[in-house]
Specification:
The structure holds two protein chains of two kinds. Chain A is an all-alpha fold. Chain A contains twelve helices and no strands. Chain A folds into two domains: about 50 residues, no CATH class; about 170 residues, MetI-like (MetI-like fold), CATH 1.10.3720.10. Chain A starts with 14 loop residues before the first helix and ends in a 13-residue tail after the last helix. Chain B has two domains: about 200 residues, P-loop containing nucleotide triphosphate hydrolases (Rossmann fold, 3-Layer(aba) Sandwich), CATH 3.40.50; about 140 residues, Beta Barrel (OB fold (Dihydrolipoamide Acetyltransferase, E2P)), CATH 2.40.50.140. Chain B is about 25% helix and about 30% strand. In chain B, the strands form four sheets. In chain B, strands 6-7-8-3-9-10 form a six-stranded mixed sheet, sandwiched between helices. A five-stranded antiparallel sheet of chain B has the order 13-12-11-14-20, with no helix packed on it. Chain B has a five-stranded antiparallel sheet with strand order 15-19-16-17-18, with no helix packed on it. Chain B starts with 5 loop residues before the first helix and ends in a 21-residue tail after the last strand. The chains are: A mainly alpha, B alpha+beta.
């Protein structure tokens, strides 16, 4: 990293560079004097990286307001709210978006329930074949989507299942299970099994123990698994392409439209989806912070490990 | 029983409970089914685990009766089976054999949520997503206690453990000692028939641990509930317990009051585990009888005299058989001249002198080849008795010699509890 030769004191640096500098250098040495040039370069570099990350998103949002009249939405023509008002003007696109949203919701639901169960099994218990299950989950995540898509397609053909909405849903739920399972089992790595014994000891049966103790504790893991699953599903293209039959999803429709020109409504819809994601992330962070910012312990004597 | 009834009445109730158990023990000596059965009874309980290398025995066969209101400790090194025993009482492990009875009712295969006992976990196992009041109320809510009553009882028990001001804190905002009290309150608020504690002070530092020992004993007196306490710390067990079961290799080596354990350790293991002991291994010269009962005179050098009372816990002691005797370091007298009278006498040379403030520890190598530790109190009139290399005489009263039985289960463990030595109030 370019910051290494001229570290910046943490009091004046941007957050991103501060963590990089303090991580790379011993604390005692971070205070020696340095050239102004290095400090400047680091600042510029940091902003460039941030710009690189958000530029496509900004462009997408900006062009949802573009007063374009051609089929191509590439050149800035002036500001308009037309496309936001006429969001549903292309029936095929609207249907595709509806399909994508419902498939994402349903596959997330299925994958979250099943994945949480698998995650709890491998996170909490030692059992014969646990290694094999872990390997299977990893294989599912690591396998190229082209391979998964093609093999699913041949499986559906062999079984004589017509391709369409249902096969897309099955495909999406299938690859999402592994992600949820891994996230949940990671969350359980620091989980104290005696918490469940304590609940049992205090009169809770197995189901009440899950509802009142296990689930609330792993809930952040379940939620991040579900969000991951939703975001993976809503923009999934390759496997969907293999198994869609005549059904269109949002990514399939957009990809098809690129040959003739993507209408601004796509930008509007994508902006809405993005904003929804940002809103969820902010919400999650706020709730998480609200839970964390409380008084620290009065004394630290003998806190258990 | 609630906290506001005050310590005096609570202690009375404990006293009542104890006198009941004392009556039971006199009228129904062993295995009886009187009107007031013991709070906890283990009958031939054993536990084996299946591992890849075959069956592993955690608990070999335990018979045990714990009286109502008793502070009972299971003491032993790690892996001795004490925690497994406690978990079987709590319902978290099912015994491979045998029966567990709570107040005379067989609960061997009753799940923990349906047993009227509560466990305080070594890790405390406080629910991180609930505040202190929520943790403590958990058990009451499960039982369907009315909301107003839950609030009242939670408030009372938090006052008892002196945590009333912290009711709305999360466990991670508390110190180790505070978490420990929450765990205790969470269990006690359910008014269990017995409270099981699995090394609850293990994670605390020494000073806090000593404070909590006294605190635990106070709470136990106030609520009058049977406590079963698992620990590997002998001083902890001695401080708090009415009776202690010393466990080793899945068996109870000795079950007795703290004083009895210290004064009369049944086996070499107990003698070594509780305090410091000198163990002499000698063959028997003759067996005879003095005013108090049979005694064995053991092999010793010229002018030396080693005598041990023969008690019923020993097998056949005859001329030629080998006896292990133990004598505590503080019971031994050290003099420059040979003492007179009917005492045990050994001759030796001081090899080590360690000054420890309140006392001095001498290591003496005897003529017979034994290494003996002597504690000498540094009282006002005590002056330096001996230095390294000095020839000394060691002596102690005959009845301070105690003959050890071979290792194994204590046959007396299954007997009904007797009146505890250290009584409440």
């Amino acid at each position: 990293m370019s910051a290494a030769p001229t570290p910046v004191p943490s009091s004046t640096s941007r957050p991103a560079s501060a963590s990089a500098a303090s991580g790379a250098m011993p604390k005692g040495k971070a205070r020696r004097p340095r050239g102004r040039l290095g400090e400047h370069l680091l600042r510029v570099y940091t902003w460039l990286i941030l710009l690189w990350l958000v530029a496509p998103i900004i462009s997408m949002i900006v062009f949802s307001f573009n007063d374009t009249h051609s089929k191509q939405n590439n050149n800035w023509q002036g500001f308009t709210l037309t496309w936001w008002k006429r969001i549903g003007a292309i029936p095929d696109l609207t249907t595709a978006l509806e399909n994508s949203l419902t498939i994402a919701l349903l596959s997330t639901l299925i994958a979250t329930v099943l994945g949480t169960m698998i995650g709890m099994a491998i996170g909490k218990h030692a059992f014969r074949g646990k290694g094999a299950v872990n390997l299977l989950l990893f294989a599912n995540i690591a396998a190229p989507e082209v391979v998964l898509g093609a093999s699913l397609l041949s499986l559906f053909i062999t079984l004589g299942i017509p391709r369409g909405y249902l096969t897309i849903l099955i495909a999406h739920a299938m690859f999402n299970i592994a992600y949820v399972a891994v996230v949940v089992s990671t969350r359980l790595a620091s989980y104290d099994l005696s918490l469940e014994e304590a609940a049992r000891d205090l009169g809770a049966g197995p189901f009440a123990t899950f509802r009142l103790v296990t689930l609330p504790i792993i809930f952040p893991g379940v939620m991040s698994g579900a969000l991951l699953a939703f975001s993976l599903s809503i923009d999934e293209y390759i496997m969907t392409q293999f198994n869609a039959g005549g059904t269109l999803t949002f990514p399939l429709w957009v990809f098809g439209a690129t040959r003739v020109g993507v209408p601004p409504q796509v930008n509007v819809m994508a902006t809405i989806i993005f904003m929804g994601g940002v809103l969820l992330a902010v919400l999650g962070a706020t709730i998480g912070r609200g839970r964390r910012t409380r008084r620290p312990a009065d004394d630290t004597a003998g806190a258990p490990a | 029983m609630t906290a506001d009834e005050g310590p005096a009445s609570a202690a009375d109730a404990v006293g009542d409970a104890r006198s009941v158990s004392a009556q039971v023990s006199t009228t129904v000596p062993t295995g009886g089914t009187g009107d007031a059965p013991p709070a906890i009874e283990l009958v031939g309980v054993a536990k084996e685990y299946m591992s890849r290398r075959g069956a592993v025995t955690a608990v070999e066969t335990i018979d045990l009766r714990i009286a109502e209101g008793e502070f009972f400790s299971l003491l032993g090194p790690s892996g001795c089976g004490k925690t497994t025993t406690l978990r079987m009482i709590g319902g978290f492990e099912e015994p491979s054999r045998g029966q567990i009875l709570l107040h005379g009712q067989d609960v061997t295969s009753v799940p923990p949520n349906k047993r009227d006992v509560n466990l305080v976990f070594q890790s405390y196992a406080l629910f991180p997503h609930l505040d202190v009041a929520g943790n403590v109320a958990f058990g009451l809510k499960r039982k369907g206690v009315a909301r107003g009553q839950v609030r009242r009882r939670v408030g009372e028990i938090l006052d008892l453990v002196e945590l009333g001001a912290l009711a709305d804190r999360r466990p991670r905002e508390l110190s180790g000692g505070q978490q420990q009290r929450v765990a205790l309150a969470r269990a006690l608020v359910n008014r269990p028939r017995a409270l099981l504690l699995d090394e609850p002070l293990g994670a605390l530092d020494l000073k806090l641990r000593q404070t909590m020992q006294i605190e635990l004993k106070r709470i136990q007196r106030e609520v009058g509930i049977t406590f079963v306490y698992v620990t590997h710390d002998q001083s902890e067990a001695l401080t708090m317990s009415d009776r202690i079961a010393v466990m080793n290799k899945g068996q109870i080596e000795q079950l007795a009051s703290p004083r009895e354990l210290y004064e009369r350790p049944r086996t070499r293991f107990v003698a070594g585990f509780i305090g410091t002991s000198n163990v002499l291994r000698r063959s028997v010269r003759t067996v005879t009888t003095d005013g108090t009962g049979p005694i064995a005179i053991l092999d010793a050098g010229a002018d030396e005299r080693v005598i041990v009372p023969v008690h019923s816990g020993l097998g056949g002691v005859v001329t030629g058989s080998v006896v292990e005797l133990t004598v505590r370091p503080e019971k031994i007298n050290m003099t420059a001249a040979r003492p007179e009278g009917d005492v045990c006498v050994l001759r030796g040379r001081v090899t080590e002198v360690v000054y420890l403030g309140t006392n001095t520890t001498y290591t003496v190598f005897t003529a017979g080849g034994d290494e003996i530790t002597v504690f000498w109190q540094n009282s006002a009139d005590a002056n330096d008795l001996a230095g390294r290399g000095d020839e000394v005489w060691l002596s102690w009263r005959e009845d301070h010699s105690y003959a050890l039985a071979p290792s194994g289960a204590d046959p007396a463990a299954a007997e009904a509890p007797t009146e505890p030595v250290a009584t409440a109030g």
